[in-house]
Design goal:
It is found in: Cell membrane. The protein is mainly alpha-helical. It contains 15 helices and no strands.
Amino acid sequence: MSTMTLENREKLEAQSLQARRKKRWNNFLHMVGNHSLLIALSAIFIMPLYLVIVLSLMSKGQAETRSLWPHPFVWSNYVTVFTAVPFLKWTLNTLFVALMGTIGTVVSSVPPAYVLSRLQWKGRQTTFIILLSTMMLPGQVTMIPVYIIFSRLHWIPSFLPLIVPSFFSSAFSVFLLRQFFTSIPDEISDAARIDGCSEFKLMMKIIVPLAKPAIMAIALFAFLGSWNDFFGPLLYIVENEDLWTLGIGLNAFQGIHHVDKNMMMTASALFMAPVIIIFFFSQKVFIEGVTLTGVKG
C-alpha cells in the first residue's frame, strides 16, 4: 500500500509540475499577445543599434556583404579608431564641454525656477510667460548677433561660446524645475520660514533635495544636448583642431573613411556608448523627474 501511495504522490507531483509549466507558457503567450505591438516597435528601434554594433566588429570586406553576424569578430577596429585619429582628445573635449554645460544649466536654472514658483511677487506670471516665449525664438535668428558678440570678445576659437551661455539659464530647464517646485506643498516652506530659515537656505536645504529627480532630468537633458551638439562646435571651434569635439571629429573621420563602413560604425558606437550607459543607470530618476514636472502648474 505504501508503494501505491508513493506512486500516486509522484504522479500527482508530475501532473502539478506539468500544470505549472503549462500555466507559465500560457501566461507568456498571453503577455506576448498583449505586447506584440510594443515588441515589434522595440525591434524596429533596436535594429539600427544592432547593425551599428555588428558592423563595427566586421572586417572591411565582410561589412560590404549582407551578413548580419561578424565572422570573425574584429575587435581591433576599436584600437584602430584611437590610433588613426585623436579620438581620445575629441572625447575629452566633448566631455569637458558637456560637464561644464550641465553644471552651468543646473546652477543657473534652480534660482529662477524657485523665484517663479515659491515666491509671491507682482508680475511673476508675466515674467514666466515672457521666459516661455523665448523658447519660440529659433536659434537661427540669434545666431549671427551672438557670433558677432563672441567674436568681439575674442572668444573664437575657444570653448567659452559653448560653455558660458549655459550659465545664463535655459528657459526649458527653468520651466521643468518650476513645474516640479510648484508640486511641493507650501506648508513645508511656511514651517521653515517660521523657524527663521532664509530664502536661500530654504531653497538649498529643503527645496533642492526634494527636487532631485527634476534636477537630474534637466542635467541629463543638458548633458545629452552638449554631447550631441554639432552646429555649435562647427561654428565656434572648427578653426582649431586641438579643440575639436566628437561631432566635428566624426564628420572629419567620415571624410577619411567614408568607404570603410566598419570603421565608421566603430566610431559611431564609441560616440553612442557613454550616452547609452548614462541613460541606462539614470533612467529611473530621469523618467520620474520628467513625469512629476507636470503634476501641478
